[in-house]
Amino acid sequence: MIALSMRLLRLGGRRAVASAALVGIGIAMGTALLAVALGAVHGWDAREERAGWRTGDVVAGAGAPVALLRTTLDAAAGRVVQRVDVAALTPDAPAPPGLPRIPGPGEVWFSPALATLARELPPDQLAARFPAPAGTIGDAGLTGPGELVAVVGRTPAEIPDAVPVTAFGASASDLLMVYRQLTYVAAALLVFPVASLLGASARLTAARRAERLATLRLLGASTGQVTVAAVAEVTLIAAAAAVAGIGLQWVAAPALTAIDLGGSEWFAADLRPGPATVTGIVAGVAVLAMLSALGGMREVVIGPLGVARRQRPGSARLLRLLGLAAGVVVFAAANGARQVAPAAIVGLVFGVGVLAMFGAVSLIGPLVVRLLGSGMVRSARTPAALLAGRRLLDDPRGAFRPVAGVTMAVFVAGFLAPLTASVPEAAYGDDDALRVVSSRPVADLEAAVRQQLAERGLPAEVGPADVHADAGVVVIPTPPADRDAVRTALSSLADRPVLTEREADAAGVQLVADLRTGALVVLAGTFLIAATATGTTAAARVLDHRRGLRLLRLAGTPLAVLDAARRAETVRPLLVLGGIALSMGLLCASPFAAASGVLEPSGLAVLAATIAGGIGLVVAASAASRPLLRSVTTEAGRED
Question: Which of helix, strand or coil describes residue 98?
């Protein structure tokens, strides 16, 4: 039966090939985006493994220490530089990742990006703060190719506040844990739309497939034979498309590395899921496609004559409202569990709640479509409105698929819009005054600072100030003095790097920026899903209804009326479902930000872009499938 199924597909002509291509395109794109989401999780793990010894929370280990380690932040050219001071305590101390050995006192090793920046800037703006570099740090010790890191060799006496370490292994980081949990939530925002796209793609042109299989059933094929034929066709196409999707993600990985998160770009290998994950993705996609095919077999096996006669009773019942209530209950439970869950799984716990809300939106979608269809039939004043209403009533689940992707995108926008507006730009302090902290008396420090600046010819305002409960001096460079030149000139007088208040909290500033970047990436991903789903399902719906469309055309119905009916059966459900999805997205965001945040400029920008993009996708899909509509209603051909 597998060979027969493939033979029937090959003999189906251009229409069969087009149908299989639509299925493959949807599954390939969904698989690629799923691999991107899982690849991001893999990327954080890879970063921690390579650079966790210095980016994590450095703590003293059990056993005899082999080195002293201290990490601080510096800045140059508006970018953060991580400075790692290390001192060996034993002659046979292991080398840190990316280095051949622990740097000796007075030695410094630069990351490639920092070495390039030091060459490009005047020496008094960066290079003069360090000795001449002894070498460059390898990729095995970096979070990404653009990371700015300097590993400086010291004697133990030079860094009395350093932490003794027993090995240079990855250590846990609260900040990295935050990023990982946020990635889990972002993955949850993408996984359900991707899964919906995969399932919908597997069901594309299901009507045509069901008719062909029903014919086999009426000709005497057994239930098992028909089942194998149905499953084989969809599963083989899905598996091949899944492999193509994985290949697409691998090819796209170098471009994805440009997304700066956590203070650095990525290595392409970090964003590519491992072999076990890839195998699981392909197997999962094939299983999902198989289940989708089996789900459409019930009417073929039980009532093949009804399928052949194209009798399609509606299947969206009011019981789906129970699913909505269940989704809200699960979300409330997950949100409550999130507040008491361990930090390592809080993102996963909340992600379960988000998935439940996604499921609720997807579950009630066909019901809303059915109710809209019923209302359109009762209130129809034009032939197009009547045709649209009847088609919505005839197949509410099929009518929901072209708008499901955009509906999911609106849900994601409703979740992200208030979050992007919840943190003000100026939440991390002053970015003008450089702060100089030293153990010497403030008066002596101020005098030394003034003398140093005068000798270098660097004009600046200087005055005493408290810097986080430490006495120090603040310096505000005035034109034409360069901030980095002032920073370099004063570095020898300070006990720690000379930074502004905002630069000292670089991690918090970076996190806020990354939240917005992540929101845009997730929103772009959902729109890519929506574009794929809307385009493929719109074309597939024309192919599935080609017989009825052709008969209407032969009966004298103008093509413009059929086109208007297609638009009406898409736009009206989209407007209603979009409002429902927006409300549920705001509900998901409510534990973290007030719904009123959506009225902030950044929130309104996200919503406006989503609405404009959603309308644009629907219009584009309608325009793209119009030639197909003209073709199936004017060309003579077989009904199968």
Answer: coil
For residue 278, CA distances in Å to 25, 30, 43, 372 come to: 18, 14, 14, 41
Per residue, what are the HEC states of 130-196? CCCCCEECCHHHCCCCCCCEEEEECCHHHCCCCEEECCCCCCCCHHHHHHHHHHHHHHHHHHHHHHH
Residue range 66-112, pLDDT digits in tens: 889 988 899 998 899 999 999 998 888 889 999 999 999 989 999 99
Mind listing the pLDDT tens digit for each residue in 440-453?
Answer: 888 888 899 899 99
Long-range contacts of 309-316 (CB under 8 A, 24+ apart): 310/207, 310/211, 310/547, 310/548, 312/207, 312/394, 312/395, 314/370, 314/393, 314/394, 314/395, 314/396, 315/366, 315/396, 315/397, 316/366, 316/367, 316/369, 316/370, 316/396, 316/397
* 360 φ, ψ (degrees, to nearest 5): -65, -45
Read off the pLDDT of residues 283-328 as tens digits, 9 standing for 90 and up.
Answer: 988 888 777 766 655 554 444 444 444 445 445 566 778 888 888 8
Q: Are 436 and 490 in contact (CB under 8 A)?
A: yes
Across the strands, what pairs with 84? 71, 151
What's the rounded Cα separation, in Å, for the pair 65 and 41?
32
Which of 394, 389, 384, 388 lies closest to 374 in space, CA to CA? 389
**Two tokens, residue 621:** 């899909």
* pLDDT of amino acid 306: 46
The pLDDT score that the predictor gives to residue 111 is 94
Rounded to 5 degrees, what are φ and ψ at 236? -65, -40
Q: Which of 508, 492, 42 is nearest to 253 (CA)?
A: 42
Say if residues 371 and 545 touch (Cβ distance below 8 Å): no
Phi and psi based region of residue 580 (left: phi greater than 0; alpha: psi -120 to 50; beta: remaining): alpha
Task: Assess whether the previous peptide bond of 480 is cis (omega < 30° from 0).
Answer: yes
3-state SS class at 505 = coil
